[in-house]
Write a structure and sequence with these properties.
Distance between the termini: 62 Å
Structural class: mainly alpha
Strand content: under 5%
Helix content: 55-70%
Number of helices: 47
Length: 855
C-alpha cells in the first residue's frame, strides 16, 4: 500500500542520514500508537537508501521476559565475527557496547542502525542505547529507535535512556493519523465508512479495505484479520496459528524444524496480507494481527503449539529466555524449573536487571526442589536483583528467607554477609536506624570468624553510615579498620569504598579541597570501581554546597556528572543533576531548578528522590506555593525516617524558614533535641554545623568545636549582617535577604524586600513588609506586574546577565561577577540571546532597547 502523508517524516530521516554521512551522527525517535505506521515508515526509508548503504535492523521481542540484548542478537550474520562471538559467548555488556560502536565506524559509511519496539527492550539493550546515544554525534551513523510511548509507564527506564541523548543530537518523529483526504484516496466511495471506523489509523484502514467485499465492515482489526484467516486451508491455518504464538516473528530455522512444509503453506497467508516472509523470519504484518489470531486459538491448542516449539528449542540449546517463555505457556513446569535460574543468572551477568529479577521470581517458585545451600544462594541472588530493580519489599522477603536457611545450616559467615546486605537495603529504603542496627549486627557476627573481605566491607559500611550521620569520629575509626584489612587482603573494591568514607570525613573536618576525596576518586578510578570514583566527587560537591561554596561545588558536580555519564553510573548521575538543580535554585534560577528536579523524579530513580523532594520543598516554601506545607510535612517524615543529619538539616531549616516568613512559631523543641544529640554524640559534620547555626535563629546556643563556613559561623554568633554579607558574596541572594530580614534597620529591610520581590519570594516579601510597618517605615510599592513579567520573559538572573552583557562584559567576566562557573555563564548568555531572538550581542542590545529592558 502507498505510504501517504509521511513525506515530512521521510525528509527528517534523510536529513539525519546526510548529517551522519558528514560524521555528525544523529538519533531519531519514531513514536506513535499501534498501527500508525512506524515500521512501514522506517522500512520505506531503508529501502530508499543507496543499494551500497549499510542498514542493520533489530527488533525487541514481546516475550514475557525479554532476552538480554534481544534486538542486537538480530544483527548476527550482518556484523563482524568479533561482535557475533561476544553476543554468543555472553561477553560483558561493556565489551558488546565497545564492539558495536566499532562496528558503526566501519565502512561503508554511514551506517543506519534501526532498533524497533524498544519499549519492550531489556535493560542491557537500553544501557547500550544510552552509551551509543551519548556518542552518536561523533559517529558516522544514524540510530533509529521506534517505540510506543503508551507501552512505557512512568519510571520506565526507556525515558532515562531517551533523556540521556542530547537534544542537539536527536529528533523526534511522532506519527499522526491519516487525514480524511488520504483515506479517501485509498477508499474511494466508501471513504466515509472507513474513516468513521478507522479514525485514520493506517493499519485499520488497510484491514478494512482488505474486507471491501464484505456486506458490513468488521467492527475491529481482530474481526478483519479473523475474517481473512477463516478462508485459509488447514495447512495455512496451522502455519498462521504457529507463527501467532511466537512474539513478533519466527526464525526460519525454527519453522523448518517444527513445520518442514511451511513454505508452501505460507503462500496463501502472504497473498491475503496476513504474513510476511523475509530471508530470516516469518511474521505478521502487525502485532495487532498476531494477537487477534493468537486469541482465537483455544487454550489447549495454544499449549500444544508452544510445546512443539519448546521441543525444538530444547534440542537446539536455545536462549534460556525463549525456553522459559514457551515452557511456561506449554505448562511444562519441570522445564521452567530447570531453565528459569539459568535465564536469571545470564540476565544478571549482562546487567539486564529487570529481566533477571523476573526470572529469579519464577525460579523461586521451585526453590524447594533444590538442596538447602542452593536454595539460600538463589534467594540471595533474588534479593540482590530485587534491590537493583527497586523492588525492595521482595528483596527483604527473599533475604530473610535466605538467613533462615543459613541459620539452619549453621553458616555464620553467610548470616553475617546477608545481614550486612540487609543493612544496605534498609538504608536504600530510607530507614537509617535499621540500617545502622543491621550493620553493627553484621560486624558482631563476622568478627569472631576472623579476617575476611566480608568483614572489611562490613567495617567500611559502618564507616559510611557514621559519615552520613555526621559522626566523623566513628567514620574514621571504622574506615581505618576497613582500609587496613582491605589492603592486607588485597580487596581493592573495599579499599576504594573506605577511602571515600575517610576522605569525606577528613574534608568535613577541615582538610583542603583537592585533598583526600580527589585522591580517593583517582584510586577508585584506577581500580575500575566507577561507582566509588563517582561517589568521591559527589561527596565533595555536596559538602561544598553545605559549606556555601557553590562555585567549587558546581565545578566538582559537573566533573562528577561527566564521569558518571561516561561510565554509566546512572543513579549517581541523577543525584548529581539534582545537586546542580539545587545550586541553580540558590542562584535564583527557580524555573530551571524546578524543571530539572521534576525531570529527575520522572526518571523514577529512588536514591536521589529525597534530595529532589528537598529541592522542590525549598522552592515551594520560598515561592509560597499552596502545597508548600504538604511538601514540607512529607519531607520531614522521610527525613526523620532516614535519621541522618544531612537529611534532617535541610528539612528543619525549611521548617524554620516557613515559620519566619509566615508568622508561625519556630520549631524550638526540635532544634533543642538535635542540638543535644550533637553535644552528646560528638557530631561535627556539615549537617551538624548548619543545625547549630539555625538553632541560633531559634535562640538556642551551642558550642561547636570545628571551624564553620562563614555564613553559618556568623549565624551562630547571631551576626545577621555578617551572615547576609557572606551569603551575598557567594551569590545566594535569597539567603542574604532572609538574613537581612532579621535586622531592625530600615536600609537592610528595604534591600531585603527588593530582593524578595525580584525573586518572586512572596512570603519573605510579606514578612519584611510587616517588619517595615512595625518600624513605622513606609513600605515601597512593588514593581508593576508588567515589569516583573517583562516582554522578553527574562528571569531575574537573566535580566542581571543582560545588563552585564550590555556593559560589554565577556562570559568569563560575567561568571566572575555573578560567582558562577564559566559554563553556567555561557548558558545564561545563550538563554538571554535566545529569548531576545538575537543571534549576536549587538542585536541583543538593539532588541533590549526596543523592549526597554535596559537598566
Amino acid at each position: 500500500m502507498e505510504l501517504l502523508e509521511r513525506d515530512t517524516a521521510l525528509a527528517t530521516l534523510s536529513e539525519a542520514w546526510e548529517a551522519a554521512g558528514r560524521g555528525e551522527g544523529r538519533a531519531v525517535f519514531v513514536t506513535g500508537e499501534p498501527g500508525i505506521g512506524k515500521t512501514s515508515l522506517v522500512g520505506r526509508f531503508v529501502r530508499d537508501l543507496d543499494p551500497a548503504a549499510r542498514a542493520l535492523v533489530g527488533t525487541s521481542d514481546d516475550l514475557s521476559i525479554p532476552r538480554p540484548f534481544g534486538p542486537i542478537r538480530d544483527l548476527v550474520g550482518c556484523v563482524s565475527p568479533a561482535l557475533e562471538q561476544a553476543l554468543s559467548s555472553g561477553a560483558a555488556p561493556h565489551e558488546v557496547q565497545t564492539l558495536l560502536i566499532a562496528e558503526l565506524e566501519q565502512p561503508p559509511q554511514p551506517t543506519v542502525l534501526v532498533l524497533e519496539d524498544v519499549h519492550w527492550a531489556d535493560n542491557a539493550t537500553l544501557d547500550l542505547i544510552t552509551v551509543l546515544g551519548r556518542r552518536i554525534a561523533s559517529l558516522p551513523a544514524l540510530l533509529v529507535l521506534t517505540f510506543r510511548g503508551g507501552e512505557a509507564p512512568r519510571g520506565h527506564p526507556l525515558y532515562t535512556t531517551l533523556g540521556s541523548i542530547r537534544a542537539d543530537d536527536s529528533v523526534v518523529i511522532e506519527l499522526e493519523a491519516l487525514s480524511m483526504s488520504a483515506v479517501a484516496s485509498l477508499a474511494g466511495d466508501c471513504a466515509d465508512t472507513v474513516w468513521a471506523a478507522a479514525g485514520g489509523n493506517p493499519l485499520y484502514v488497510t484491514e478494512l479495505l482488505a474486507c471491501r467485499d464484505a456486506d458490513e465492515p468488521p467492527p475491529s482489526v481482530a474481526n478483519a484479520v479473523l475474517g481473512r484467516a477463516s478462508r485459509l486451508d488447514a495447512s495455512s491455518r496451522r502455519l498462521v496459528e504457529l507463527v501467532s504464538v511466537v512474539p513478533n516473528r519466527v526464525r526460519i530455522p525454527l519453522l523448518d524444524a517444527v513445520m518442514p512444509d511451511w513454505a508452501a503453506a505460507a503462500e496463501e497467508p502472504e497473498r491475503r496480507q496476513l504474513l510476511e516472509v523475509d530471508t530470516a523470519h516469518v511474521h505478521f504484518r502487525h502485532e495487532l494481527a498476531r494477537n487477534a489470531i493468537r486469541s482465537s486459538i483455544p487454550i489447549a491448542g495454544r499449549r500444544r503449539l508452544h510445546a512443539e516449539i519448546l521441543d525444538v528449542l530444547l534440542a537446539a540449546n536455545a536462549d534460556p529466555a525463549d525456553v522459559v517463555h514457551h515452557a511456561e505457556a506449554a505448562g511444562a513446569d519441570e522445564v521452567v524449573a530447570d531453565f528459569a535460574l539459568v535465564a536469571a543468572r545470564r540476565a544478571a551477568s549482562l546487567e539486564s536487571n529487570r529481566e533477571a529479577y523476573s526470572h529469579y521470581r519464577r525460579a523461586a517458585d521451585f526453590v524447594e526442589r533444590l538442596p538447602p545451600g542452593e536454595q539460600a544462594a538463589l534467594l540471595e541472588e533474588l534479593a540482590t536483583a530485587a534491590y537493583v530493580s527497586n523492588r525492595l519489599e521482595s528483596g527483604f522477603s527473599a533475604m530473610k528467607r535466605a538467613i533462615e536457611i543459613h541459620r539452619d545450616l549453621e553458616d555464620a559467615a553467610a548470616i553475617g554477609r546477608c545481614t550486612r546486605v540487609m543493612s544496605r537495603f534498609h538504608w536504600y529504603a530510607g530507614d537509617g536506624a535499621a540500617a545502622r542496627k543491621r550493620a553493627r549486627e553484621a560486624v558482631a557476627i563476622l568478627e569472631p570468624l576472623g579476617e575476611s573481605p566480608e568483614l572489611a566491607r562490613a567495617y567500611s559500611e559502618l564507616s559510611q553510615l557514621a559519615m552520613l550521620s555526621d559522626d566523623l569520629e566513628c567514620t574514621l575509626v571504622w574506615g581505618e579498620r576497613a582500609l587496613e584489612l582491605a589492603v592486607r587482603l588485597g580487596d581493592e573494591s573495599t579499599r576504594a569504598h573506605a577511602l571515600v568514607n575517610l576522605g569525606a570525613a577528613r574534608f568535613q573536618i577541615g582538610e583542603p579541597v583537592g585533598g583526600p576525596l580527589v585522591e580517593a576518586h583517582a584510586i577508585a578510578d584506577a581500580a575500575g570501581d566507577r561507582h566509588e570514583a563517582t561517589r568521591a566527587l559527589v561527596n565533595l560537591s555536596y559538602s561544598l554546597l553545605c559549606k556555601a561554596r557553590p562555585l567549587e561545588s558546581r565545578r566538582y558536580a559537573e566533573q562528577a556528572l561527566a564521569y558518571a555519564d561516561e561510565h554509566e553510573v546512572h543513579t549517581l548521575a541523577s543525584y548529581l543533576r539534582t545537586i546542580l538543580a539545587w545550586l541553580n535554585l540558590r542562584e535564583g534560577e527557580w524555573d530551571d531548578a524546578e524543571r530539572a528536579t521534576k525531570g529527575e523524579i520522572e526518571r523514577g530513580v529512588t536514591v536521589p528522590e529525597l534530595l529532589a523532594k528537598t529541592v522542590l520543598a525549598e522552592l515551594a516554601v520560598r515561592r509560597g506555593d499552596p502545597d508548600a506545607p504538604e511538601r514540607l510535612a512529607e519531607l520531614t517524615v522521610q527525613a526523620d525516617r532516614a535519621n541522618e543529619l544531612q537529611r534532617l538539616m535541610p528539612a528543619l531549616e525549611l521548617t524554620a524558614e516557613w515559620a519566619l516568613t509566615n508568622e508561625e512559631r519556630l520549631p524550638v523543641e526540635r532544634f533543642a533535641e538535635l542540638v543535644e544529640r550533637i553535644r552528646s554524640d560528638g557530631l561535627c559534620g556539615d549537617g551538624a554545623m548548619r543545625i547549630v547555626a539555625w538553632a541560633a535563629v531559634a535562640g538556642i546556643e551551642c558550642e561547636f568545636d570545628r571551624a564553620m563556613a562563614p555564613p553559618y559561623a556568623a549565624m551562630r554568633r547571631r551576626d545577621w549582617s555578617a551572615a547576609a554579607d557572606a551569603f551575598g558574596e557567594v551569590g545566594w541572594d535569597y539567603d542574604r535577604a532572609l538574613m537581612l530580614s532579621l535586622l531592625d534597620d530600615e536600609e537592610s529591610l528595604l534591600e531585603s524586600i527588593e530582593i524578595a520581590r525580584r525573586l518572586g519570594a512572596e512570603p519573605l516579601a510579606r514578612r519584611v513588609a510587616r517588619r517595615l510597618r512595625d518600624l513605622g517605615v513606609r513600605v515601597p510599592l512593588g514593581p508593576r506586574q508588567a515589569t516583573r513579567a517583562n516582554p522578553a520573559g527574562l528571569t531575574a538572573r537573566q535580566l542581571q546577565v543582560l545588563n552585564l552583557l550590555l556593559d560589554g562584559l565577556t562570559n568569563a567576566e560575567i561568571a566572575e561577577r555573578l560567582v558562577v562557573s564559566p559554563r553556567t555563564a555561557e548558558h545564561h548568555v545563550a538563554a538571554v540571546l535566545t529569548k531576545l531572538g538575537a543571534p549576536t550581542r549587538r542585536e541583543a542590545a538593539q532588541r533590549a532597547s526596543e523592549l526597554r529592558l535596559n537598566a
